[in-house]
Amino acid sequence: MTRKEIDTPHGPARVELHCAEEGGAALLLGHGAGGGIGAADLVAVARAARDAGVHVALVEQPYRVAGRKAPAPAKQLDAAWLAVAEELAGTWFDGLPMVFGGRSSGARVACRTAAQGQADAVLCLAFPVHPPGKPDKTRQPELDAVEVPTLVVQGERDPFGQPEPGPHREVVLVPGDHSLKAGLDALSRATGEWLGRVLRPLVS
């Protein structure tokens, strides 16, 4: 495991790199609004990805590196994420297919930046379709805008709603709520299988 700070337009981001023995692709994972890269679902997915032959970069946004708890505005999150992705694509992950991913707020960032960052696929953990109790304030369009293969892993009792499947999008429900802690085994299986399937044509 290697840690590295990467300059972004909004301050340094911190990246924790976990390399697979024979990695043929890379997965960038972002954290939720109030949490960090040590979240149980991110750790489980990082392990499953490495087992599937995928390098992993856990990305800590600049506001967290600076010690702030309140998340930065969406445009700042997206700009910082794209700066990190560009740096990694030109260094550690040069020439490799890249998957953008994250949990909750990090999943939204991955969706919003997928096209500009030329991601080959998107992995969403606990995508917050709407604020709890406010289904009219939907973020479904962020998912719908993604045109590359997408997997959404959602807790069956997630108060942030359930995303709809789409032409490029698979939705897997696992036990538990927004934290996904009750469904880590199912999450790992679904993620490892999906990564292997969608990346196989790109790395062969």
TrEMBL record:
Domain KANL3/Tex30 alpha/beta hydrolase-like: 25-164
GO MF assignments: hydrolase activity
Source organism superkingdom: Bacteria
InterPro entries in UniProt: AB_hydrolase_fold (IPR029058), KANL3/Tex30_Abhydrolase (IPR046879), NSL3/Tex30 (IPR026555)
Alphabetical UniProt keywords: Hydrolase
PANTHER family found in the cross-reference section: TESTIS DEVELOPMENT PROTEIN PRTD, TESTIS-EXPRESSED PROTEIN 30
Name by which UniProt lists this protein: Alpha/beta family hydrolase
Classification lineage: Bacteria, Bacillati, Actinomycetota, Actinomycetes, Pseudonocardiales
